[in-house]
Structure formats: C-alpha cells, structure tokens
C-alpha cells in the first residue's frame, strides 16, 4: 500500500511508521523536517508545512494517516489538496470530542462538542483542542465521505510517548510511583503499538480506541507487578488533575474498535516494555500540555 503519513517522527507517529514498514508498505512522510530528521533515512520525505500543503499536489497514495492535525484550517487545506489524490483519510482524533464527560459506557454515537462562537480556526489553543478535533472530523467526513476514519484515543502509553512516563521512570529507578487520581478513579489507555496497528487497519467511521476501563489502583498494581519489591504508590501528589466530572471519559465503550480488529496487550507487558525502554537510557518526553 502507498501510505502517506502527516507527521510520523515523534511519539505515536514513530510507531505508525515502524508498523507500516514492518508490514511492507511504501511510506511517504510529510512534515517540516525539524523533529528527529534522521529517523527513517530510507523513507521518502516531503518537507513542508501544514499551512501550505501544496507540495502534496504532485503525489498519489492509497491512504493518508494524519498524525499532526491540530488546526482546523490546516486540516481543511490538506483535505482539499488530497481530495482526489488519496483513497482513504485516517485522522488521529481524541476521546475529548464528547460533550458528556460523566456518563459511563458511551459509544461513538455520543454527542460531540460544539464549535465556540467566534473561535479562530487558524491557530492551536488547548481550550479548543476537543472542539477542533470535532470540527476536523466533520470536515473530513464532508470531503471524503465513507473514505475517512476518526480514531478517538486518550492516554497513549509506551516508548516515545509521555503518558504514564512518570510511572515507568519511577519503576525503572526504584522510586515511588505517584498518581494525581483517586485509587478508584476509572482509567482507560492504549499501548502506542496497539494503537499504531489499529491506525493501519482498513476501516471506516469513528472508533473509541481505548483499553478496558479499570480503577487506577488496579492498573497501578499491574504496573508494580513487573518490578520485584516495587515501592508503595504515593496517592497524594502535589497537583490533582483528575475530577469526578470527567469519569465518563475513562469508561467509554470500545466494542466497535475491538470488533474492527483492535488488539490489546496486557497491562504488565506494556509496563515491562516501557520500563525496559527507560532502563536502556531513554527519557519519556514531556506531556504536550
């Protein structure tokens, strides 16, 4: 398959490209060439900016996977250039698109966030992250119809990724894990490698690509199990980032993704690999916000 990846040299994008190459796909990268430019030296690279995707007008691909779509205007420009140049458009979205953040068990038909009146569509702002992803999903669906996929995910764990990096680092260094949540706080996450594999599946529509919901204490115990004599968890961090009103976002229904082919590795395997990666001298990146 001729695959175009927008981004592809950091965090989850690295896993997508690695998985695509492992499967024998013909990969082209489109990015600014400023992040990890030496990665994938044998892969064709088109250097350009999302604000001006005209360099993509000379190629054709079976699929595009958009890993860097944050600004609505930029995604719209990419869609216009690629409308007749790609067979299918897969967009990396977020579980933050849902209006209801309380009710457990929501599937992909849940109500989505509205676009704030007067909000700019030509810049990235964290307060517009969810609404921007919603608007991008809608724009792509209007452009490509059934030839588009929206992959909605939350915490993404694993090498090159920041989520739960503090846990991996603590276990690797023999210090106490800390958690900014209640022990009973529900949580869902996905290993970056499992998410990358799903992004390469030939599916259409929206998908909640998350693992099973479980209490934070249960997940912490699974991670601690990979290191003998791991120290007790510190449940009293300086900053509380989790709130009751967000519990529903970590109890989403992932049945549609599982039916479409999502495969999830055990928590202990994800933790063991993350700890090994850190012990090899790697450092998790800082969270994006």
Automatic annotation (TrEMBL):
Matches recorded under InterPro entries: NAD(P)-bd_dom_sf (IPR036291)
Listed name of the protein: NAD-dependent dehydratase
Organism: Kribbella antibiotica
